[in-house]
Amino acid sequence: QDTLIVWSEAENYDLALSFQEKAGCDEIWEKICQVQGKDPSVEVTQDLIESEEEHIEEMPETSPLIDLPTCELNKLEEIADLVTSVLSSPIRREKLALALENEGYIKKLLQLFQVCENLENTEGLHHLYEIIRGILFLNKATLFEVMFSDECIMDVVGCLEYDPSLAQPKRHREFLTKTAKFKEVIPITDSELRQKIHQTYRVQYIQDIILPTPSVFEENFLSTLTSFIFFNKVEIVSMLQEDEKFLSEVFAQLTDEATDDDKRCELGMDDLQVRSAATDIFSYLVEFSPSMVREFVMQEAQQSDDDILLINVVIEQMICDTDPELGGAVQLMGLLRTLIDPENMLATANKTEKSEFLNFFYNHCMHVLTAPLLANTAEDKCDKDAGVGSTKSNTICPDNYQTAQLLALILELLTFCVEHHTYHIKNYIMNKDLLRRVLVLMNSKHTFLALCALRFMRRIIGLKDEFYNRYITKGNLFEPVINALLDNGTRYNLLNSAVIELFEFIRVEDIKSLIAHIVENFYNALESIEYVQTFKGLKTKYEQEKDRQNQKLNSVPSILRSNRFRRDARALEEDEEMWFNEDEEEEGEAVVPPVEKSKQEDDFPDSYEKFMETKKAKESEDKENLPKRTSAGGFKFTFSHSASAANGANREGLGELQAALEPTGDLWAQFHLAPYSLCFLNRQGSLVGLVDYPDDEDDDEEEETSPRKRPRLGS
């Protein structure tokens, strides 16, 4: 069908292959036909099942039902063949179900089961297994009501013990009647409720334990059985809710200090099964409505201490999981990830769930999540003597496998935060110097943990955020990564490939600040690595950028390159710091409340956009007095000669020349080169204007009150 190939397997199981282009569809179709020995020019090579069904459906309702063989021992093989044969046709399944229901056939079959078991008739018992299993696959609720009644259910279980594929029958009835015990924390007096609980447990046992896992063609055969169990559970819960005494008695015992520990344990506490059940309930709530859970925990924060907040309890359960494989911790981590995922957070006109919940999470919960990570990478334990290229391993890395697995889970969640939380996690990483602590784990003997630490750094670098890049270069945070690469030696493994991919990304994306830092600080240690061209490529990029900078510098007149006009490097640092010290709101995003930090920690909020807005506002003020065009087509610049005007002459020159060049799109850059000098470059990097006060030695003795000399315009 153009870009589709469709076919049917079994009676109502349709499959399809979908292709993006017709050419690909035709190619695969030809290969299928070649294997099947059919003509690819024929569009339909399979008999349509629907035609048979439509033909049957058109038959009158009075059409005869399936004739069942008499229920006798010598007919069991024939009955088994009949039941298994109808499973391929929905219409025949329906007719067989009606016949079984009308004639009370199931109870007769179960009577034969008792006879066969008494006679130890193995062949008959095997046939009965196939028959009962086939009847379950008819997927009819009316038949289930009969089979799962108190009168019949244990015989049904008995039939299912005699699987022909097993050498010995199972003992399911023995388990249900002797091993499994019905425990009543609070006595249940309602006989109907007790019967419903027993039935549900046994039917669940049949589905989960006795019946084999259905194949791909049998999955829909037991959908009604699943629904039967579900509605039974709904009915049980409803009956408990309607019982006026039951729930009140449960809570009375929980709150009664006289209740002994054994009794209380049956109600909860640290019991693993109870904890597992509670985790399942919590997961259903999170999957059903993560926003509802978030709303609850934010309301809870207004009334409770951080230690008992629901989110922190979940994190502590994750951290304290006693399972060697951390099965429970993995499940809880997945739930936390769902809760902190901005993709399922709501935004309304009055409030933004994302900003509110993330503010809550980073202020009240993040310190609990990162506590094991910070405890296992404490700075006072770090070995600071190892230099680049050293094979000296850090002894503080956790050697315990379970601890390493826990840290890997925490790092996975933090990596998710880096990808989805932008400025919240950025502030936290920089305030806590978190990346440095994470990279300590590059020394772990557990390679999977070292890879988790590396993946965390890779996600940060992948953002290509200059604030992060500045943090990495100032902190010399490539050193542990390069040490890990060198310590790995010539081994061609996942760690080797992951580290090289990190540097290859930096090279391909041409992240100049990182390239310069790597080449200037680590190239001597890396130049011997020649099995990939990554590091030579970084050196090439570095040299090319250096050449470009030199060419630009050479295009500027020598007067601008002299020390006399060079701006103090400390002044540049002060401007840079101004970007970091402003605490303003990013466009379209909420302001991040400050995370608690030590006095030594620096704050790095995102303020670049606000800084640029302020700068533009100031520049717009300088455009009020536009230069006048002369008859020769040039611009005439006029300046005040008063002392007060002289102090602002640089800014006036900037405003006038900028106003002259911006309409043509030629103004590319402007520099304050000295207290009384301004430089203007066009988009080609050539000097187009200079406003300068001569700084002659003769003027050194001039009195402060005397007016400055008139500035000159150079080009």
From TrEMBL:
Residue ranges constituting the Serine/threonine-protein phosphatase 4 regulatory subunit 3-like central domain according to the UniProt record: 267-544
Comp. bias intervals (Acidic residues): 579-589, 693-704
Location of region: Disordered: 579-607, 692-715
Gene Ontology annotations of biological process type: DNA damage response
One Pfam entry name: PP4R3
GO molecular function: protein phosphatase activator activity
Signal peptide: none
Entries under InterPro entries matching the protein: ARM-type_fold (IPR016024), EVH1_PP4R3 (IPR055236), P4R3-like_central_dom (IPR006887), PH-like_dom_sf (IPR011993), PP4R3-like (IPR051137)
Cellular component, GO annotation: nucleoplasm; protein phosphatase 4 complex
Chain ranges of the PP4R3 EVH1-like domain: 1-36
Sequence ranges of Basic and acidic residues compositional bias: 596-607
Family the entry assigns: Belongs to the SMEK family.
Protein name: Serine/threonine-protein phosphatase 4 regulatory subunit 3B
Lineage: Eukaryota, Metazoa, Chordata, Craniata, Vertebrata
